[in-house]
Amino acid sequence: MSDPVIRRATAADAHAIVDLRALMFSSMGVPGVDDDGWRQGAVRWFQAEPAQRHTCAVVAERDGRVVAGAMGSLRFEMPSPVNPNGVWGLLNNVATFPDARRQGLARACVVGVLDWFQHETEASVLELFATGEGSGLYEELGFSVTAWPAMRMRLPR
User: Fold this and answer.
1) DSSP reduced 3-state for 117
2) What is the pLDDT of residues 89-108, one digit of tens each?
3) Are the CB atoms for 134 and 94 separated by under 8 Å?
């Protein structure tokens, strides 16, 4: 087994990124993970989005196979006391296939995305939605729990 290569994902990695995303959703108990509709839409989205410079995905590749990854995206809002410039970063899609876990690969991918936020964007506040399994890693990297949990409403489309 060769040493892993940590690198920026490209449009050619779209299917691997979506497979990791499905793994993340499955581990969270999100229903509909096996639906091809969202998967096809996610592949198309990822193939188009990297060129727009609002998203960065970093993957760990071993022996030519993507085995872990993390993604960051930008969100733009009106400035506030919490975020004076209004540019937010969302860290998401952090996942590692079971046969590659406990090797520091997810951490390396997250650090790669954090470097992108720090050096290539104007994001001043980062957010994420952590599972219990991942919260320790995020706290070690400087994230903290907020007082306001997320709420969500789905609009019929």
Assistant:
1) helix
2) 999 999 999 999 999 999 99
3) yes
| pTM summary value | 0.93
The dihedral formed by the CA atoms of 60, 25, 71 and 152, expressed in degrees to the nearest 10: -170
Distance CA 57, CA 13 (A): 10
Which two tokens mark 40?
């096809």
The answer to whether 90 and 75 are in contact (CB under 8 A) is yes
Longest alpha-carbon distance in the chain = 49
Q: Is the dihedral of CA 39, 45, 46, 48 positive or negative?
A: positive
Q: Which whole-number Å values give the CA distances from 79 to 84, 86, 89, 129, 154, in the listed order?
A: 5, 4, 14, 22, 25
The pair of three-digit structure tokens given for residue 54, joined into one six-digit string: 């609002």
d(CA 119, CA 115): 6
d(CA 133, CA 131): 5
Tell me the angle at which helices 14-28 and 36-48 cross, rounded to the nearest 10 degrees: 130
What's the token pair of residue 81? 């006391």
3-state secondary structure of 68: strand
Structural domains of the chain ordered from first start? 5-140 (3.40.630.30)
